[in-house]
Fold this sequence. Notes:
The chain is of the alpha/beta class. Helices cover 46% and strands 16% of the residues. Helix 10 crosses helix 11 (271-295). The longest helix is centred in the C-terminal third of the chain and has 25 residues, at 271-295. The protein starts with a strand and ends with a helix.
Amino acid sequence: MRSLLFVPADSERKLARAPGTGADALILDLEDAVTPPAKPAARQLAAAFLGQRRERLAVYVRVNGFASGLLDADLDAIVPARPDGVVLPKSAGGSDVTRLSAMLRAREALSDQADGAIRILAIATESPAALFALGTYAGASARLSALAWGAEDLSAAIGAEAIRDAEGRFTDPYRLARALCLAGASAAGVLAIDGVFTRFRDGAGLEQEALAACRDGFAGKLAIHPDQVGIINRVFSPGVAAVDRARAIVAAFAAAGDAGSISLGGEMLDRPHLRMAERLLARVAASEATARSASS
Length: 296
């Protein structure tokens, strides 16, 4: 998933437009984008959207977190409508994913769905304590598909005056959160998804931030506006030269048998280079599968 677009679940207009944005996945938002009085109606609209969708597009739902007291009602409304996944905000660590998985399992059984059909994407850096738990997601649940990070709730909890410096760069606490999310996702064997870029009219700034995320190992980025989707998709789609090189590396290692290192084009490559090439090709295959599904 290169681009994951948040869509307020209480807006019929935005829900109607969302499938045509080109996003790899939609996140129907029941949490921050919806005021408390509007949440019951938003649940109904989200369930209706899931039940009526025709496009073969991944659709997740961001539910309200455990501390909200609203999670059970969210799951009761959306699980029967068969979302592809649930986005868990304010996750405190792997134990929260394990707990959510059990809640999903019970509701899947009641709605005649396969155990594990609904995936989990956890937003894993929204409190100071959560930063110390990013190593606990490994083995938490087979449902876990990705970890994402965010700065806004974390900054509120810390009491920061700003999350970026005068040049627009994240300050150290948020750079740390970003790096820990990337490491935690890698340790858990799931995708790392970069956080939102809130200046949605600043395409150049978004592209710069997305390029840095792609360089560092993130697989995609959260979007808050449809205009951000095209930039994100382009940045996180590997170029022809990179794909050709990855295929050449994989082929060279295959030809060399179980070699620990190979020589290719005058460069000595070892097993980490093979793993990086395999990951890039897996991203390409996933993107191609998404494109085929969207067009069918």
